[in-house]
Amino acid sequence: MTGILKQPGAFAITPHKVSLCILLKIYAPPAQISVPFPFSSVSQHNRLGLFLLALTKSCDDILEPKLDELINQLRLVSQNWEASWLIDQLISRLSSLSSPDDLFNFFTDIRGILGGPDTGAIEDDQVILDANSNLGLFLRRCVLAFNLLPFEGVCHLLTNLGIYCKEEFSSCPPYEETSLDGSSSNLETYSEYENMDLENFVYEKVSEEIEARKEASERVPFHLHTPNALLSLVDDINVAADSASKQTDKVRVASPYEDPPSNMIQDIDSSGAVFLRSNWQVQGYLQEQADTIEKNGSAISLNGFEIILRQLQKLAPELHRVHFLSYLNGLSHDDYSAALENLHCYFDYSAGNEGFDFIPPAGGNSFGRYEIALLCLGMMHFHFGHPKLALEVLTEAVRVSQQHSNDTCLAYTLAAISNLLFENGISSTAGILGSSYSPFTSMGISLSVQQQLFVLLRGSLKRAENLKLKRLLASNHLAMAKFDLTHVQRPLLSFGPKSSLKLSTCPVNVCKELRLSSHLISDFSSESSAMTIDGAFSTTWLRNLQKPRGSLILCQENGSGNSSNVSQFCAQPTSIPGSVLQVLGSSYILRATAWELYGSTPMARINALVHTTCFADASSSSDAALAYVKLIQHLAVFKGYKEAFSALKIAEDKFLSVSKSQILLLKLQLLHEHALHRGHLKLAQKLCDELGVLASPVTGVDMELKTEASLRHARTLLAAKQFREAASVAHSLFCMCYKYNLQVENASVLLLLAEIHKKSGNAVLGLPYALASLSFCISFNLDLLKASATLTLAELWLSLGSSHATRALNLVHGAFPIILGHGGLELRSRAYIVEAKCYLCDTNFNVFEDSNLVIDSLRQASQELQLLEFHELAAEAFYLMAMIYDKLGQLEEREEAASSFQEHILALNNPQDPNDPLVSIY
Amino acid sequence: MSSKESCRTELRIAIRQLTDRCLYSASKWAAEQLVGIEQDPAKFTPSNTRFQRGSSSIRRKYRTHEITATPTTGVSYIATPVMEEDELVDADFYLLAKSYFDCREYKRAAHVLRDQIGRKSVFLRSYALYMAGEKRKEEEMIELDGPLGKSDAMNQELVSIERELSTLRKNGTVDPFCLYLYGLVLKQKGNENLARTVLVESVNSYPWNWNAWTELQSLCTTVDILNSLNLSSHWMKDFFLASTYQELRMHNESLTKYEYLLGTFGFSNYIQAQIAKAQYSLREFDQVEAIFEELLRTDPYRVEDMDMYSNVLYAKECFSALSYLAHRVFMTDKYRPESCCIIGNYYSLKGQHEKSVVYFRRALKLNKNYLSAWTLMGHEFVEMKNTPAAVDAYRRAVDIDPCDYRAWYGLGQAYEMMGMPFYALHYFKKSVFLQPNDSRLWIAMAQCYETDQLRMLDEAIKCYRRASNCNDREAIALHQLAKLHSELGRPEEAAFYYRKDLERMESEEREGPNMVEALLYLAKYYKSQKRFEEAEVYCTRLLDYTGPVSLKYLTTISI
């Protein structure tokens, strides 16, 4: 940060400093008794002293408070009449400085209030400034700076004093310039509002502002490009009586640029009123903003922040960091060209020497550290979904950092590359790992990709360990855990593993990596805070200074105050840095994911809960949203859709601002499931298409989303009984997953294929698929999916004839422990029904003796299915029940079951139920 | 075009009026054009035409085509009535004020005219105030060189001038000169649209004020803006268009305009310099050199535009001519940014890069926004292998003018030097986007793609193809194309390009290793195609060159 520091001699005397000197003179008038005139008590006097101390601390300004701001602060500090006396004195003395000679005299006078070197000789109750105290030092610096001024300088000071005083009297709006730039963005905003009720708009704006004041974290607009109908789908499910609030919701949705610039400027102004404008403080402010963007990108409005940045740049053209912030801003708002331009601009100016908390290599080289630029550029391309470009750039970053022997950067780059490879389907990595020439052949599978990824991960892990980059190490461990989670130790060589015992994932490894990752964090509590920025710290310091006096400025505290708490928390030197907390938080998310895959839902739920309760403040908003998603999914599976949707509504309110929203994805998933269960196939198809559109069109990007979309597509087709189409979709999905090494997904695709064959009545064809899926599940330790596959297998056997009933029953019973322990409503009821069917098919089974056995499980199943509104299976359960009652001769129960059966069948066949809220939307 | 004589009378009056209003640079310009009008040889004795041009043999050599007197294409120029001077009631005060102004005592001049209401007095008062503000601003900029590089020095008089002039304009009692000043003020205050309208009004009612035209030109940043201007036709408009086309990098259009203007103003130094500028942009260095030699002969103390001449001399590596030029401008006026730039160029050519950086720095001290000095300084830093400093210098140039393709190119080059070819590509792309007809840029980009680190040969081929299409002077592109194609195993394309390269070398009578390589490849190629006759032809040609290879090939083919 060398470029931004002021020169040591550049302590310029300004009108603001002159007023400080005047106040100091009032504070310590020469030759006075202990409590000088206007003050009634020592504490009053001390209060002014503290205030002055704060002011002098923040005197390294690039933008100083205006006179009226100073006066306002004075009013806050002291009692009524004292304040007005102080202010009168200040203004009259200021305005009496009308010629250069007045200034000369003033500064000669002021020397008198300083104690001489022989401070011991002074009487006790005389107020005098110690020349070595903070205030004394400030005064001496002022005097020195004045004496160093050439005559031109004195003239300037005089002119500036005139302006300074005049501004107070005319009190013009402080941020005049911003309206220049604001006009264009305002236009943009208004054009969006054109077709809207103006009153509504105004109300909305006001309420928005109030909201903004109340809770700092919620003040934000958001970017969601979804059709309104879809967004309000859930609103309408638990039909809301207050249509007014819904209306405003929609208004909010329609205006991505909502946050008008003025709002934003008020925002900075309110924090700016605490006169935090020193160099360091601006740095601190930028750092804080960077953190916010990182945590929750769309929390900051694109234009509003851009205006502030431009203003900052005007004030401090050499503060290149502003460009970086601009880049981040562009990045978080998906403005590709702006981000690119600003990134290049930043690194051209700063040569990578500014602002990164990397450990600088010994013996600073003069060549700049452009490898960091490459690293950032690579990450940017990654963010925008250009994996090929990103890989090229990162390869170059590897080369350049090797060339400059910047190991730290190399470690980060390797981590970034492995992350890239992990997220995207890229085949050839030859360029990185040695041989220089690698034309990018078509995106295809090569088994070595995984191996290379593994090698890369290992390498970057080792490197991070050697360089003691703890944060990187922690996140590398996490990446390793992720890798272990979904990849078997040896690559699958053929279709399905041959000796399943050897080829399997190692949950132990995952667990180990996760533990290692979080262990590292504990080291941070002992480590000194290299990460905290001085500016942020002094910001907090000043805030704390003001707090006991209960100033109006800090109304943020009244609100939820999460963000401000965090920043204060972070600024304390002993605390754990926010980014570390974030890594820790994501380790919990990963745990939840792992347990989800391995099939222990309670564990998954617990980990997600831990994340939401402990790391809500520190984690990035996307992580937090993910935790919520997991919890809501859990709810949907175990408690039915009603509960899930009401929870979703809460989550939506909380994460309005998340742009590429996981919440939106979740909503689509839930709605799709719901529609499938209720038999709204058209709606299901529509939702499924919506889901597919969310994915990027680039090959190899957003693989998870694409897989999910086509999986759901196949299921919808299956539900519509279009078996051939469903099978072909599933087949092509299988091929894609195979190509990109998504083996875990393949297990479920195989299961789906088995399901399709089962439904189409081709049990013999279905069997191999079910078995393959089963073996996949075993090798990947996917216990819950394995149970589900076993169930399908049992059904397949059963449909081959009653002779296989015992075998099927054994299978079902074998799977029961895990299904009852961890399975959701659907799985459980399916298991019950299959079990009942097995019994009924079994020739040895006597209905009259063991009817309770069957009836109980069927009743259980039907209850759970009703919760899910799963008409098809529910009808089946009721049908079976009715048959049994019929056999038993219990006519009343039989009628009851039969009518329930009819109800479900009708609902299934006639989805256009007018009472159905879902239908009314489409 | 209106007749030479009418131009002459118009200009004569205009010069007097402009001088009267202390618009000296405009009157200087007008006077230059006045003298530039071709004299009627019948009326004047040879002694009068002594300083006029056209006699130089060099010039004649490069004059590619005689000006075919463009037929007047029915454009009827509106004869703007020459402005009537209003009766000066307070002529004495005006005279005093003007003398103060001439002595650069602006505030005093404004004060003398404080209560005058004549149009001329109003203008001179406002103009004097403006000049006083500008002078103060310049001083402040040096006094207040803030620690963070902030310099927000403002012309303090702008507000009051704007207020006065806008009321005048509303009342309709404003004259074209006040309109010009009003436009100037508006432009400085950032109100560009209104400034444009006001300036158009000004030039429409009084077209001879070149200052107004230049201000207007600086506000025309795109062709669309230029086309949307509602300008009445006058021969001054042609000057304006020519110069604006040049700024918009439409060099050929600009050249035609200037050639056309030469018909009337045959001896205008200004036009010659502008033509040189356009030719320089088209990289016709020989012509530029000829023009400048001529200019220096007729106008030996000229400093304007001489930095471009030094660039040409630099490119042609004329050591002594450059040193001569540097000496001359140094003696004329050493504290002009152009002079410093020329000296910097000289040191650069001598390989004394540290010294040349000193002079470029001085040029930048004199004019912070001196674009070419930033770029040239970047080049020096590149030579000194101080790439971060070079990047910084180039970046500043780019920030001053985002259309400066040289600086973008320099940035790319600097990054390529640091072994970051992929990163450099971004900058090369920018530069070719701005100057798509420059083969050097395309070649640089292609070489970037070709580096060992990237080896994106297909992209490189695309770039070379573009380069060969836009008049690749050094003939690198064809050779590289042939080589790359043969490397990628496409013998037919390779042979095609080798043949083209060969033809080109023949036509330019160049020889060298490239020739041997081409012949060799073609011989091999035809042999493999079983077209032995052609192969033999190439082989026999190979015999002209020494080396064992050719003989061996000839023997293999004849077998």
From TrEMBL, chain A:
Coiled coil feature spans: none
Domain Anaphase-promoting complex subunit: 323-421
Keywords, ordered alphabetically: Cell cycle, Cell division, Mitosis, Ubl conjugation pathway
InterPro entries xrefs: Apc5, Apc5_dom
Keyword presence, ATP-binding: no
GO biological process, one term: positive regulation of mitotic metaphase/anaphase transition
Record has Iron-sulfur as a keyword: no
GO CC terms of this entry: anaphase-promoting complex
Family listed: Belongs to the APC5 family.
UniProt name for this protein: Anaphase-promoting complex subunit 5
Organism: Cicer arietinum
Recorded name of the encoding gene: LOC101503464
